[in-house]
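Appendix C: a fully annotated inverse folding record. The material below is reproduced so that readers can follow the format used throughout the book. The structure is listed first as tokens, followed by the designed sequence.
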């Protein structure tokens, strides 16, 4: 990729706008911050902005935002071009421009763009635009928090997003919680599935801002341990110390993965890449008592990876355990995420006997319904505490899995923390002079 970038720099005056925008997008997707390439493209693209189409404008602003490479002339020229092409912008292009400006910290420019674009977005965003809704809603929330505060277009958009998308899904998630256990779990999951399906909102995640709100409202945030439902059988480290350990452990695991894959370039000490299923890591700790204290399950802390396939996921735990923590059916698949892998392991350990045998999950002469009753009777008596850190905000499917865990185990306090992997590398800066910059 380095050689290709240098060749494009040499031929920059011969490149079409489409070539420049696609190349910048590709660098961003790979997390490659080639300084000479980005600077050269910025100069030429700013000069020829009137030749860029709507997709090219969206791609190049998004790419420079992801790579945290600010060029005032480029941004000004591309925003002027976006305004000229306003009627041609798609929902994804509007979202990409907003996300790029948000990532670059261009709050004033973001607010001006949103003031013109939010109404357009609502008019064209339809089924299948769930990720664009979530990304744009989070960009709007950031813009409102910045200098200038709320503004009419943002207020109307936030209200629409909250009432049409966020609240219906959060309502279903809340009905999976212990306090709402009266509604059958299968019925709630089916409602959630319909809400998040491609024919519904197609919302895959809430994004950073609204996931924080969701965790707090679902009692899955740190507060579950501070004045929460139960005390832990053993003491955890203070939350700040535990969170630091979780991030450090995941950072070291990511470095080891990159070195094993041979992808750690010289000078690339962070190995940051845009978040993907394979690259997201989780760290979990738990201390749980089952059987009235006759069995104690403890995990001081460990990194969990995504499963590489559904076969690998299903091979770890029994059908009984899998059925307790059901994911949503979405594309791409949501059943392989590391936070679900951690909870599957915990539930498997809770349902084994003291000799490590399947125990309650073993059917024997019992029917499936009788096994389910036995399993849930055992889980409801387990008590303790579970902490999970995830390097990227969890998807709605994984929030549902966490709510199912809390429903089955109302005496266990679950606390979840996460980072936004588009902004940070396990709590560290994604880029610096020594991290992730390809030499120019």
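Designed amino acids, in order:
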């Amino acid at each position: 990729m380095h050689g290709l970038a240098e060749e494009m720099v040499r031929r920059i005056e011969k490149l079409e706008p489409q070539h420049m925008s696609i190349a910048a997008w590709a660098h961003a997707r790979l997390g490659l911050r080639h300084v000479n390439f980005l600077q050269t493209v910025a100069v030429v693209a700013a000069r020829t902005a009137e030749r860029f189409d709507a997709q090219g404008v969206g791609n190049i602003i998004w790419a420079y935002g992801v790579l945290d490479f600010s060029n005032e002339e480029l941004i000004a020229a591309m925003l002027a071009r976006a305004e000229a092409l306003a009627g041609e912008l798609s929902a994804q292009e509007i979202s990409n421009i907003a996300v790029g400006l948000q990532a670059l910290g261009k709050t004033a420019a973001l607010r001006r763009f949103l003031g013109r674009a939010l109404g357009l977005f609502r008019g064209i965003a339809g089924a299948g635009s769930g990720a664009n809704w979530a990304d744009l809603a989070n960009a709007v929330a950031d813009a409102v928090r910045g200098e200038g505060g709320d503004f009419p277009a943002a207020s109307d958009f936030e209200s629409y997003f909250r009432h049409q998308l966020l609240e219906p899904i959060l309502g279903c998630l809340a009905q999976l919680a212990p306090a709402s256990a009266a509604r059958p779990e299968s019925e709630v999951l089916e409602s959630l599935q319909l809400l998040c399906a491609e024919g519904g909102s197609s919302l895959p995640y809430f994004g950073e801002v609204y996931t924080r709100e969701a965790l707090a409202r679902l009692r899955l945030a740190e507060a579950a341990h501070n004045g929460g439902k139960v005390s832990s059988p053993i003491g955890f480290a203070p939350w700040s110390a535990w969170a630091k350990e979780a991030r450090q452990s995941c950072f070291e695991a990511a470095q080891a993965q990159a070195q094993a894959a041979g992808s750690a370039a010289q000078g690339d000490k962070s190995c940051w890449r845009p978040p993907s299923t394979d690259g997201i890591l989780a760290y979990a700790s738990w201390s749980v008592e089952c059987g009235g204290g006759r069995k104690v399950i403890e995990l001081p802390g460990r990194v969990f990876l995504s499963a590489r396939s559904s076969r690998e996921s299903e091979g770890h735990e029994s059908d009984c355990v899998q059925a307790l923590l059901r994911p949503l059916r979405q594309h791409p698949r949501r059943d392989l995420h590391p936070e679900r892998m951690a909870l599957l392991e915990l539930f498997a350990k809770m349902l084994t006997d003291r000799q490590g045998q399947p125990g309650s999950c073993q059917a024997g002469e019992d029917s499936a319904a009788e096994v389910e009753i036995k399993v849930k009777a055992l889980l409801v008596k387990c008590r303790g505490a579970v902490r999970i850190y995830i390097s990227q905000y969890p998807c709605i499917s994984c929030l549902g899995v966490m709510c199912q865990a809390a429903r089955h185990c109302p005496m266990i306090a679950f606390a979840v923390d996460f980072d936004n992997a588009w902004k940070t590398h396990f709590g560290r800066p994604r880029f610096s002079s020594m991290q992730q910059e390809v030499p120019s």
